[in-house]
Design goal:
379 residues; ISAs1 family transposase; membrane; elongated; 13 helices; 2 domains; alpha+beta
Length: 379
């Protein structure tokens, strides 16, 4: 009888990751090692030195809660040696770890979005870990899928030097078993006919900006008489010493528009001014979607577009500033990629505890060794 795995339980998810160590030398289960590293990262550990310190300092009740080995001689639970932890992280297969975390987040979607007909925004975006570059080797680049509304990373995948983000798009989303009613946004390079067909096959939708890589489509949309199309939705924001106005115009896809399953086309304009209303910048973006107007009018489309633009601040900025990812000098084997996945998971775990300021959440996690366990659902 096949074992049923509860993918909402992190322990059972970690148990699905293949252990690369020789069976004869395993004193500490892989699940315990991954739990200790993930808990340390939730507490803001950004280097091997910080992870080692957290593991060495973890009190006995916390080690017991995480399933650490019990030493009969001392009557206490024994944490794995920090060197063992570091070596194990370098031996692990990054793709297996990514797949396990993606399965876990996908299983949680039913709790985050309990309405089966609700449209779920998902942004695909890449990020480079600059500190991972070493001795002529390029820095690690990863493609991720994020929930922009909640700023939670759902899936990630490595991009090696022989490929690019376009080829990694489908393998990334293949990690998610169900894309029904998911609305995928991405930058201009992902405005690809193959991507559109793939998403349609999986019951998903796309909202994609059109640029120079689709010159014919761009020229066709740019030639439309947008002056005759009313503004469908406007937003105004004031902050960081500037005023920002965004507008969107939407129309049905004109006959003859050559893009798979297209239903609507749009024009988004963003105007930025200083506090005295002196113009600073203006950006206009044309785009396409297979969402029909009855499912997504101008306001909803504007929200999806803005979600794609916001992931830089909600995820990448936090990883670089709070978790200092670009300064992390861990470069060996799979460790940089696995730790990047764990940082993204830590951010999501803290956001699910309603921490909008992740630095504050990491400080809360450092205040008590039990707090990271609460964030990870391991209590």
């Amino acid at each position: 009888m096949e074992e049923v795995v509860d993918l909402t339980d992190l322990r059972q998810v970690w148990a699905q990751v293949p252990d690369p160590r020789d069976r004869r030398g395993r004193r500490h289960p892989l699940v315990v090692i991954l739990a200790l590293v993930q808990a340390a990262i939730v507490s803001g550990a950004v280097s091997y030195a910080a992870i080692r310190h957290w593991i060495r300092s973890a009190p006995d009740p916390v080690l017991a809660q995480l399933g650490a080995r019990f030493d009969r001689r001392t009557g206490r639970h024994q944490a794995p040696h920090p060197d063992t932890v570091c070596r194990t992280m370098e031996l692990l297969d990054a793709a297996s770890v990514d797949a396990a975390y993606a399965a876990h987040r996908a299983a949680q979607l039913t709790d985050l979005y309990d309405d089966p007909d609700e449209l779920i925004g998902l942004t695909v975006d890449g990020k480079t870990s600059r500190g991972s570059a070493d001795a002529g080797k390029p820095a690690r680049h990863r493609l991720g899928a994020h929930l922009p509304a909640d700023a939670i990373t759902v899936a990630q995948i490595d991009i090696d030097s022989k490929t690019n983000e376009i080829r990694a798009f489908q393998p990334l989303l293949d990690q998610l078993p169900d894309l029904t009613n998911v609305v995928v946004t991405a930058d201009m390079m992902h405005c690809q006919r193959a991507h559109a067909r793939y998403l349609h096959r999986r019951g998903a939708f796309y909202v994609l900006p059109v640029g120079g890589n689709q010159r014919g489509l761009f020229d066709q949309l740019n030639a439309l008489d947008w002056n005759q199309v009313p503004i469908g939705w406007t937003t105004y924001d004031r902050g960081h010493g500037r005023n920002e106005i965004r507008t969107i115009q939407v129309m049905p896809a004109p006959p003859g528009t050559r893009f798979p399953h297209i239903k609507q086309v749009y024009l988004v304009e963003r105007h930025v001014y200083d506090l005295a209303w002196k113009p600073l910048s203006s950006v206009a973006v044309l785009g396409v979607t297979n969402l029909p107007a009855r499912q997504a009018g101008p306001r909803r489309l504007a929200e999806f577009v803005r979600g794609e633009w916001s992931i830089e601040n909600k995820d990448h900025y936090v990883r670089d500033v709070t978790f200092r990812e670009d300064h992390c000098k861990i470069r060996t084997a799979s460790a940089p990629s696995i730790l990047a996945t764990m940082r993204s998971y830590a951010i999501g775990a803290l956001r699910l505890l309603n921490f909008t300021n992740i630095a504050e959440g990491a400080r809360w996690a450092r205040d008590d060794f039990r707090h990271p366990l609460i964030a990870l659902g391991l209590t």
